[in-house]
Each structure stands twice: as C-alpha cells, then as structure tokens.
Write a structure and sequence with these properties.
heterodimer, A: alpha/beta, Rossmann fold, Coagulation Factor XIII, Chain A, domain 1, 10 helices, 33% strand, B: mainly alpha
Chain lengths: 420, 283
C-alpha cells in the first residue's frame, strides 16, 4: 500500500529582499541593485513517508521549518526541489475559520467554509443542523458572525473544518480551541480519527500532546530532521536539546551580564549570589541520573537587615511546565538575615530525583514571610539534565512495584511454573 | 463512570465530490455570491446603485454631447448607442478594477488555505458579470420596449461579442491580478490606461464620428478590442442598417482586435500560471 504522504529531498529557500522594491520609481532608480536579497533556507533536505493510519507529530524550535513543511504539504508553498506528495484527499487546519466573513450569517459562512473544503451547497444542506448541534450554536444560525464571541467563532470554524471526509489531516497547533467542554469534543474527534485509521500530521509545541497522540514524531532543527522515531523518544531528545541550549547560553553569558539579566528581579534587599547543583559526591554538575541524589547549594547575600524571609524553589520542564515547588515557609524552616553584608548558605537536598530523562529548569525566589514583597527572583537559577537511561517514559519516576499472582487453572497449568 | 454520549458529540465527515471541476465551480459560485451580497448589504438602495452609476454617466454624456455640443449626432441613434456602450464599459472597468485586488487583497486566504488561485480571479469576475448581466437585461428590455432596438436574428451575434468581452476581461484580470502582487504601481497605471481606453474606444461617441473625422485615427482606434466590441454590439443590437459594423470600417483588419483578445487571454493565463507559486510567499 502506498504511503499517504511521500516527501523526498525537499528543499525550500526563501529570498527575503533587503529593500522592498515594488514601486516603479524604485525599480527605475535602483535597477542595478534591484536583486539585493538575503537567503533563508527553511528546509534543507527533508525526506520521509507517512504510512496510512499513522499519527505523525512534527516538533522543533521556532524557525526550524516545521510550518514551511506543512505549507508545502498543503500546496500553499512550492518546493524549490524535491517533492511532497499526498496520495488522497487532505484537509488542512492551518488556521481555523479561514475564509469566514464576519458580515455573513453563521449559516452562510458554513456554505462558504464548506466550499473552501470542496463541499457543495447541496451536500451541506442536509448536514447543516448537525453542524450547528455539534458546535452548540443551534440558536445562532441566522446571526452574523461578527456578533459571535471568539469562542463561538472557533467552535463553528472547527465544526466546519471537520466536515469533509478526508484521508489526511494536516494540523498546525489548533488542538486547544474553545472552552474546556468543547476542547474535549475536539480531542474526541481526533481520537475518533485515530481509531478510524486516518492519517494525521500535527505540528505542535505542546510536547505533552505530541506524546499523548502521536505514534511517531519528527524533530526538526534548522531545516533538517534531527530525530525521527517513537513519540516518547523524540520528545525526550527535544527536552535534552532545549536544556543543552539553555546551558550553552548560560555558559556563554559573562558574570556581569547575568547580574543585569532582567529575569532576575526584585528589590535585592537580599540577593541570590550563586546556586550550584551537587551530586551525591558533592561535586557540582548539571547532569544527573534518575533516582540519584541532588543538592541545591545556594548562597544568599543580605544587603540590608530584613529579618525572617522565605526561600522558594520550583522545578520546571524545559517547556515551562511546573513539576514541583516548595519553600522554607511551607516546610517550617526559618531563614533570617541579621545584619547587612551577612552571607547565608541554604541547601536543599533531594535524596532521589524522581525525574525521567529531559531538560529541567530551577527557579529560586527570595521573598518576605507574607509573600507580598519579593527580594530576588532568579529564572532560571540553574538548568540540569537527566540522562536518558531508557526504560520508563513520561516525566516522573513512579517508584511503583508490580505484583503478579497467578492462579492455577486449566490453561496455565500446561505451562510449567518455575519458582524464582 | 459512564459517559453520556450526545448525538451532537460526533460529526461525521461528508465525502467530497469527485469532480474537481464541480468543486471549483461551486467555490466560484460561493465566493462570487458572497462578494455580490457584501457589496450591497448595509446600503439603503443596495443594488440600485449599480444601475444608478452607469445611468449617471449616460445622462451626463448625453447632456454634454447632444445638447451642449450640439454635435448633430441624432442620425445614428446617439442615446441608445451611448447606453449600450456605457453598460459594457462599466462592466469592463468594474471587473478589471476588482480583479486588480483579487489576489493581493486575499493574502490571508492564500497563505492559509489551498485552492486553485485562479478561482479568486474567476469569482471576482463573476460578481462583476452578475451586475453586468442584470444591467444589460434591464437596458435591453427597456430600450426594446421603447422601440429603440431593432432586434433580428443577427442580434444573436451580440452573445458572441459579449463572450469576446468576457474573454478579454478574463485575460486582463489574470494579468493584472498577478502582476499587482509584485508591482503596486500597476493600480495607478491601470487607471490612466483605462482613461485613455475610454476615450480611445469611442465609448461616448459613435465610431462613425471618428471615421468621418480621420480615417487614420479610426484605424488606430478600431484595432483595439474594446472599440471593436462596442461598435459591433451597437451594429447588431440597435439597427444593422443604420449603425455600421467594425468590419465595414476597417475591413479585414477586424481580425486584429479578435487576435489581440485571444493574445491577451493567453498572455494573462501564462503570466498568472508562472507567478502563482510565488503568491503565498509574497503576500
């Protein structure tokens, strides 16, 4: 069976003109230099196939070429060389409600949006009540779209977008639309597509969604595929990439610059001077294994006498998701500054890191006991990385245990039991 | 836990029509109906404006030429000649002006959805054609009722000339809409060219007047498709005996405007086809 999507040696370069020369006067007066431009290579040499029924995710940092790839798949851009072929009908969700007109009624917009998908008025007429029921907009069919709230517009747009039967669905981060209850409907629809064996290509920054829905993820960077494999593997590669990038950025940053960093803010009555991450042997490192010990070693300098204060910390995934956080107040620990110029050492020891492979960020906050006044906020105060040891997937190590009890019955008695 | 399943929870897709032609035709229809609707909603008189504008031009020209200049144009049924020409001319300017913006003004659509790009040009043309058809029908009915038209079997040729006009406009629309994306001066240039064409195509005067004035000028004006279409329309619609056809003026050179029309259409098609892949990146 032919793959639904065939992409071979795809290259795409954008020529960005340095001056916009779209007027006659400019063309005439600058005819010698009219061809000044800068080349931006969006896709270098991309090849992949998507077999029927696969849910493929495409991830990568901004500007990696993922949107360009999608637009070439949807025939909006033309490739410079190579090809992207779709065998069958496709629906593109690059943006919801493309072609909708605010001056038309919802019903008229359904006909217009449907026509953009390739559905005729006659085909839509028998379907229109269902569309409004699905969008939960039964009472608004004759209202002009401009009087709709943005949530209502999105609901209508989504309902129209899924109207055409299709072999391939191409989506660009439209997963989270509408309110919570409608979102559920969207996810139900995607799950249904998956069950029905539809082929889906989804571009997203939401690694959680990619991991949950995709069978396979492509990781793009600077126009090249740098990873291609099962979702869990590739997303963890991506986490590592982000963390490495953050570490590199931190290494390159001179000490003075770091102090001037606008992400460190607060009144600085007391200040976080340093944070080191120590391994079990007390050595400073940024790489840890799942289950290993980690100690956060902080040095705080008091510029004025503030009395008791609170030191808080948060661990986030590289994409910003909060994983854990605590502070001295919650844990009933008192920290006090008695005099200006005093240096205070604060340590937070984690016996066994429950995190799985990926890049992580630590934030540290120093504030007064009421939580209303902030002295210092370091974001990120440090970044670290958990090595990929294979095995478990997700973010946290569950520390669970399996227990299997096997009862003797007719079928299993045929298999000889070997006691451990 | 049980999950309540509403029938409104699932929306099954509808299979698309197999015929790409039918899909495109449907999209053109929807887009032009929308454009037509949007043009007239919100204004009190709505469609009447589309009739008032050419009638106003007609009234002014009639006043200027037949009364103030006393040009003695009576013998060639001047008012009806003017009316037929102005309705056709209004279609020409409206359609080409709309077309100029058909691509450049649809950046959002072009960057975010795929459909054949020529559909935008075709639908902008179709909505102008809709106005034109209604206006022409009204004018023909009224003037026929007033006994100004001498309709014969020959008058059916008018359909061919209207078709020629549509092909000419389509060619120009393809050319203008695609070039305008890259070359914004075209809007102003086209306004000037239109003005020259308006007077150079004998829209407001019978071609006979040009012919009587200067043969050389008549040949020059006669080879342009607009002049030929308008003159021949007048010939077949008004009175073949009194109003001469273009061929009777310029003879076999009549093929020039027809070839030009076909040439412009092919050129427009080629240029549009060539520039289409660059639209999405340039808008």
């Amino acid at each position: 069976m032919k793959p639904v999507v065939e992409v071979s040696n795809l290259r795409k370069r954008f020529r960005l003109p340095l001056d916009r020369s779209t007027t006659l006067k400019y063309r005439v007066t600058h005819w010698r230099s009219a061809s000044r431009y800068r080349d931006l290579i969006a896709l270098r040499d991309i090849s992949f196939d998507v077999p029927a029924g696969q849910f493929l995710g495409v991830a990568g940092p901004n500007g990696c070429g993922k949107s360009t790839l999608l637009k070439i798949l949807c025939r909006i851009y033309e490739a410079d060389s190579g090809y992207a072929r779709v065998n069958g009908e496709f629906s593109a969700f690059l943006e919801l409600g493309v072609g909708f007109n605010p001056e038309l009624t919802a019903r008229e917009n359904v006909f217009l949006g449907g026509a953009m998908l390739g559905l005729t008025r006659a085909q839509l007429r028998g379907k229109i009540d269902e569309v409004f029921a699905f969008a939960e907009l039964e009472d608004f069919a004759e209202q002009k779209l401009k009087n709709f709230s943005s949530g209502m517009q999105v609901r209508l747009a989504f309902s129209v977008a899924i109207l055409a039967e299709t072999d391939l669905l191409v989506m660009d981060e439209v997963l989270a639309v509408g309110d919570a209850s409608f979102q559920e409907k969207c996810f139900d629809t995607f799950s249904r597509y998956k069950r029905e064996g539809k082929t889906i290509v989804l571009v997203s920054h939401d690694l959680g969604a990619l991991e949950e829905y995709c069978d396979r993820v492509l990781l793009l960077n600077r126009g090249e595929i740098i990873a291609d494999g099962p979702a869990a593997e590739v997303t963890s590669t991506y986490h590592r990439m982000i963390a490495d990038h953050a570490l590199a950025a931190e290494r390159d940053m001179p000490q003075e610059l770091r102090r001037a960093d606008p992400t460190q803010w607060g009144s600085r009555a007391i200040e976080l001077v340093s944070l080191s991450l120590l391994d079990a042997g007390g050595r400073s490192t940024s790489r840890f294994d799942t289950g290993s010990a980690m100690t956060l070693d902080m040095h705080v300098l008091a510029h004025s006498e503030v009395g008791d204060f609170v030191c808080g910390l948060a661990i986030r995934r590289a994409d910003g998701m909060l994983l854990a956080g605590t502070n001295t107040f919650l844990d009933h620990v008192t920290v006090t500054s008695h005099a200006p110029g005093e240096s205070i050492s604060i340590r937070y020891a984690i016996d066994s890191l429950p995190l799985l492979a990926g890049g992580y960020i630590i934030q540290v906050v120093l504030q007064d006991v009421t939580g209303s006044h902030r002295y210092d906020f370091a974001d990120p105060a440090a970044t670290f990385h958990i090595n990929n040891m294979g095995g478990h997937i997700g973010i946290v190590e569950m520390h669970g245990r399996w227990q299997v009890a096997q009862e003797q019955d007719v079928r299993s008695s045929a298999i000889p039991q070997t006691a451990g | 836990m049980t999950v309540a399943v509403h029938d409104s929870h699932i929306l099954e897709g509808v299979p698309r029509s197999r015929s790409v032609f039918q899909r495109n035709l449907n999209l053109i229809r929807e887009l032009s109906i929308t454009a037509f609707k949007l043009k007239y909603t919100g204004s009190a008189l709505g469609y009447v404006w589309s009739l008032v504008k050419p009638l106003m031009l007609f009234g002014i020209m009639l006043l200027v030429f037949s009364i103030l200049l006393k040009a003695g144009l009576g013998q060639w049924e001047f008012p009806i000649q003017l009316l037929v020409a102005i309705v056709a001319w209004t279609f020409f300017t409206e359609a080409t002006t709309n077309a100029m913006n058909a691509i450049a003004g649809s950046g959002d659509l072009i960057r975010k959805a795929y459909f054949p790009r020529w559909i935008l040009v075709a639908s902008s043309m179709t909505s102008a054609l809709l106005t034109f058809t209604i206006n022409t029908a009204l004018v023909l009915i009224v003037t026929f009722a007033l006994g100004q038209l001498d309709l014969t079997w020959l008058s059916l040729l008018a359909i061919l000339y209207y078709l020629e006009l549509v092909v000419l406009i389509l060619g120009l629309s393809l050319l203008l809409s695609s070039l305008f994306v890259f070359f914004r001066d075209l809007g102003h240039i086209w306004e000037i060219v239109s003005l020259v064409l308006f007077y150079g195509s004998a829209v407001v005067i019978p071609f006979q007047t040009v012919w009587d004035h200067s043969k050389k000028l008549a040949y020059l004006a006669g080879v342009n498709p607009i002049a030929q279409i308008i003159t021949d329309l007048r010939h077949v619609l008004i009175d073949p005996a009194k109003v001469r056809s273009m061929a009777s003026f310029i003879g076999p050179l009549e093929v020039v405007p027809i070839l030009l029309t076909i040439g412009i259409f092919l050129l427009g098609f080629a240029v549009f086809h060539r520039l289409t892949p660059r639209f999405a990146e340039s808008l």
